[in-house]
């Protein structure tokens, strides 16, 4: 069962219909990237992350899009103590994005794009970003939100939008910012945003995984 949770956390479920792939991956591509701090930071699940489009998002496309100075190799944490080689875009800045490729899951685009930094400029078309409260998510979604209980590796991951407006390709992880989380909200179980003990204002987005 934990394998299923891992897939949820990494955003590897559901491969989108085939689109033209990017060029053959290579570590050193042309330094012609245009994206800099203050550029395009819109997250559109299934389509693009800033100027990086799903149809052209292989390794060398990262460099051609963001510039060689903004793309570095880095170990990416995958859960349960496991790591794998990947990349980070805009490392050591509030707009850092971790990127992981695994062709056994996704052939022609990243298996994982992850954002975790507070104050990031990255946001969805609805304005969802790091620090967005559960209260705001429920309002935007128009329906209650279901998430996994806190206190374990995949705790806080949104598991169901319950037919609401938020795109399932935007995979969010929440955290309870209170000093003490009620026992009823801990552990490997799904929790509805209307449940007792849920503080809509103090539970916030701490991780964004985007599926292209």
Q: What's the β-strand tally?
A: 12
Mean pLDDT across the residues is 84
Largest sheet: 6 strands, antiparallel
Helical stretch count?
3
**SSE order in H/E notation?**
HEEEHEEEEHEEEEE
Radius of gyration: 17 Å
Order of strands across the widest beta sheet?
4-5-6-7-12-10
Structural class: alpha+beta
Distance between the termini: 24 Å
Which percent range describes the beta-strand content?
25-35%
Low-confidence stretches: 1-38
Tell me, what's the shape? globular
Task: Domain count, please report it.
Answer: 2
Describe the model.
- With 212 residues, the chain is an alpha+beta fold.
- It folds into two domains: 2-115, no CATH class; 134-210, no CATH class.
- 12% of the residues lie in helices and 26% in strands.
- The strands form three sheets. A six-stranded antiparallel beta sheet has the order 4-5-6-7-12-10.
- β2 (48-49) and β3 (52-53) form a beta hairpin.
- The protein is globular, with a radius of gyration of 17 Å.
- Residues 1-38 have low confidence and may be disordered.
Summary, kept brief:
The chain has 212 residues and is an alpha+beta fold. It has helices spanning 2-10, 59-66, 134-141; strands spanning 43-44, 48-49, 52-53, 71-79, 82-89, 97-100, 112-115, 146-148, 158-160, 170-176, 190-192, 203-210.
Topology of helices and strands:
Elements: H1 2-10, E1 43-44, E2 48-49, E3 52-53, H2 59-66, E4 71-79, E5 82-89, E6 97-100, E7 112-115, H3 134-141, E8 146-148, E9 158-160, E10 170-176, E11 190-192, E12 203-210
Antiparallel strand pairs: 1-2, 2-3, 4-5, 5-6, 6-7, 7-12, 8-9, 8-11, 10-12
């Amino acid at each position: 069962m934990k394998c299923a949770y891992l897939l949820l956390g990494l955003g590897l479920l559901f491969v989108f219909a085939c689109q033209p792939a990017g060029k053959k991956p290579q570590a050193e591509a042309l330094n012609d990237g245009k994206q800099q701090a203050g550029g395009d930071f819109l997250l559109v699940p299934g389509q693009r992350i800033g100027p990086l489009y799903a149809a052209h998002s292989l390794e060398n496309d990262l460099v051609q899009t963001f510039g060689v100075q903004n793309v570095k190799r880095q170990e990416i944490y995958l859960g349960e103590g496991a790591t794998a080689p990947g990349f980070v875009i805009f490392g050591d800045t509030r707009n850092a994005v971790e990127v992981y490729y695994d062709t056994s899951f996704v052939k022609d685009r990243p298996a994982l794009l992850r954002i975790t930094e507070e104050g990031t400029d990255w946001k969805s078309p609805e304005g969802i970003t790091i620090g967005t409260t559960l209260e705001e998510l429920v309002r935007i979604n128009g329906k209650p939100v279901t998430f996994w209980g806190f206190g374990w590796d995949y705790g806080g991951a949104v598991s169901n939008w319950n037919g609401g407006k938020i795109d399932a390709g935007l995979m969010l992880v929440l955290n309870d910012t209170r000093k003490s989380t009620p026992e009823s909200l801990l552990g490997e179980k799904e929790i509805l945003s209307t449940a007792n003990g849920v503080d809509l204002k103090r539970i916030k987005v701490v991780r964004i995984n985007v599926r292209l």
